[in-house]
């Protein structure tokens, strides 16, 4: 028989420690406890527990800092952390899960819920380890991560990608709004291109880096090419040899770099910065843009000749709101993936959840849908994804326990006025809570507490 699983409870409340330890021991676990962050971290190092139940508010540290420490100390074998948060601190709980906590429980904690969550964490840990054992190939990973949707529009996208896969030198331009899956389609195209799929797929985001760095990344540089170039470095074109170079946000590429890239496309050779040797570029270029490149050409921000070179084969990915048939299949796909990763059994979408997802326009496209489902999986405690767990931007979001809206003609209550005042200030400060605290003349923690109490959603200022 394997030794009992080790569970560590870190909480400054003595009664809770004693009761929790007893309940966990009754389940056959080796349960230990600590009253502070310092004591807890020391014990975790010695004990190497599988699961830690961690209080968010400890006398000597913030639970989130302890969470990070536990993960950093784990060296790949870190415990799963169940965060205990105060009632009304849902935002904190969600933040904890985003920082890597396995799940959270709201205080006062019911012992059956504690035991159940600890068991789920142990099961998830076991499954994760098994999954780590068979590290799949890149192909399997991408294809498992894909659910291209059932709409005619997405079937057409796949068809086009498969067609162009047969021509390994043809440049491809993928155009679509942010979050529609352009990178995913580029990866799929790479994997389906028999002559290139064994070679690397390298990505360069042209929007994220300044011009000189962009060129150094793409072409590489010789030693001494510029002040910081202490040694020679091959660029992405060399690293991708034989494979695919994915130029994301190509519409943001500076004009000078555009001229150099055009030359590579025309001659299939290039030089490192500061280099004198011609190097061959045997790669397929796939570019992506969320901007209208033709309009950029008309404005003089993008070269027409380069546009023609990049846009030999064009794939347009429509926004999610134009292919509503894809919303539910994608939502179910993400739910299955994310719930199993969280070790939760959430079998499907509640009918009201489906209705709300279908009514929402998803300005952030598939990425936003995935985030909505991810957050829902974190919040859901039942076996279907309920509408309460699914928060959509800019929807009116009364909290379940919030007072009913006043009858027409009735003056607003003081609470309602304060909520509206706080929301207005947050809007003005673009979500900056310390600014709001200064304006209101209260402390920062007070603002946080009020935001949680009133259930104000901060994501619109992200
Ligand atoms: N059809 C799909 N199936 C599964 N996941 C998808 C699909 N489309 C998009 N996604 C997911 O949505 C997110 C955004 O996709 P991706 O990064 O490919 O979009 P993008 O169009 O390149 O975005 P951006 O323009 O912002 O770079 C990723 O997490 C991706 O895995």
Q: Largest beta sheet, briefly?
A: 5 strands, parallel
Could you say which overall geometry the principal axes of the C-alpha atoms support? Answer: globular
The CATH superfamily of the largest domain bears the name P-loop containing nucleotide triphosphate hydrolases
Q: Give me the Rg, rounded.
A: 27 Å
* Percent helix range: 40-55%
Q: N-to-C terminal Cα separation, in Å?
A: 49 Å
Mean pLDDT: 84
Query: What is the CATH third-level topology name of the largest domain?
Result: Rossmann fold
Poorly predicted residue ranges: 131-139, 396-408
- The appropriate CATH architecture of the largest domain is 3-Layer(aba) Sandwich
Give the structural class. Answer: alpha/beta
Q: How large a portion of the residues is in β-strands, by DSSP E?
A: 5-15%
Q: What is the overall number of helices?
A: 19
Blueprint (SSEs and pairs):
Elements lengths: L5 E5 L3 H13 L3 E5 L2 H11 L3 E5 L7 H11 L6 E6 L4 H9 L4 E4 L4 H23 L4 H7 L7 H14 L6 E4 L6 H11 L8 E5 L5 H9 E2 L11 E2 L1 H4 L4 E5 L6 H13 L1 E2 L8 E2 L3 E6 L3 H7 L4 H7 L2 E4 L10 H15 L6 E2 L1 H9 L5 H15 L4 E2 L28 H15 L4 H8 L3 H10 L9
Parallel strand pairs: 1-2, 1-3, 3-4, 4-5, 6-13, 6-14, 7-10, 10-13, 15-16
Antiparallel strand pairs: 8-9, 11-12
Helix pairs in contact: 2-3, 7-8, 14-16, 18-19
Bound molecules: adenosine-5'-triphosphate.
The site of adenosine-5'-triphosphate (ATP) has 19 residues, from helix 8 and helix 16.
């Amino acid at each position: 028989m394997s030794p009992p699983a080790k569970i560590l409870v870190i909480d400054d409340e003595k009664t809770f420690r004693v009761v929790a330890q007893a309940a966990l021991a009754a389940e056959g676990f080796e349960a230990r406890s600590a009253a502070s962050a310092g004591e807890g971290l020391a014990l975790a190092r010695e004990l190497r527990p599988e699961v830690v139940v961690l209080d968010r508010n400890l006398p000597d540290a913030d639970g989130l800092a302890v969470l990070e420490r536990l993960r950093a100390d784990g060296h790949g074998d870190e415990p799963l952390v169940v965060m205990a948060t105060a009632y009304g601190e849902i935002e904190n709980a969600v933040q904890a899960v985003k920082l890597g906590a396995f799940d959270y429980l709201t205080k006062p904690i019911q012992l059956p819920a504690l035991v159940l969550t600890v068991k789920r964490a142990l099961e998830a840990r076991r499954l994760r380890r098994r999954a780590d054992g068979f590290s799949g190939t890149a192909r399997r990973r991408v294809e498992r991560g894909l659910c291209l949707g059932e709409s005619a529009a997405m079937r057409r996208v796949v068809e086009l990608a498969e067609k162009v896969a047969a021509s390994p030198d043809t440049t491809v331009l993928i155009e679509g709004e942010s979050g529609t899956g352009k990178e995913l389609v580029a990866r799929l195209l790479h994997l389906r291109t028999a002559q290139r799929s064994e070679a690397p797929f390298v990505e360069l985001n042209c929007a994220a880096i300044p011009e000189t760095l962009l060129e150094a990344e793409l072409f590489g540089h010789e030693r001494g090419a510029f002040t910081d170039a202490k040694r020679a470095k091959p660029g992405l074109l060399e690293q991708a040899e034989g494979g695919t170079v994915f130029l994301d946000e190509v519409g943001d590429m500076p004009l000078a770099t555009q001229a150099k890239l055009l030359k590579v496309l025309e001659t299939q050779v290039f030089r490192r910065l500061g280099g004198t040797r011609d190097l061959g570029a045997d790669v397929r270029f796939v570019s992506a843009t969320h901007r209208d490149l033709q309009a950029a050409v008309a404005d003089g921000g993008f070269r027409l000749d380069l546009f023609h070179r990049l846009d030999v084969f064009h794939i347009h990915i429509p926004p999610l709101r134009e292919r509503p048939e894809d919303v539910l299949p994608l939502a179910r796909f993400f739910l299955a993936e994310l719930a199993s990763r969280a070790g939760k059994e959430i079998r499907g979408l509640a009918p009201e959840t489906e209705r709300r997802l279908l009514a929402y326009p998803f300005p952030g496209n598939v990425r936003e849908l995935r985030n909505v489902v991810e957050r829902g999986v974190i919040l859901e405690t039942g076996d279907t994804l309920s509408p309460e767990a699914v928060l959509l931007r800019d929807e009116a979001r009364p909290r379940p326990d919030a007072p009913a809206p006043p009858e027409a003609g009735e003056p607003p209550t003081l609470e309602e006025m304060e909520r509206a005042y706080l929301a207005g200030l947050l809007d003005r400060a673009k979500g900056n809570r310390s600014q709001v605290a200064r304006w209101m003349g209260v402390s920062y923690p007070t603002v946080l507490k009020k935001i949680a109490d009133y259930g104000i959603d901060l994501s619109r200022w992200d």
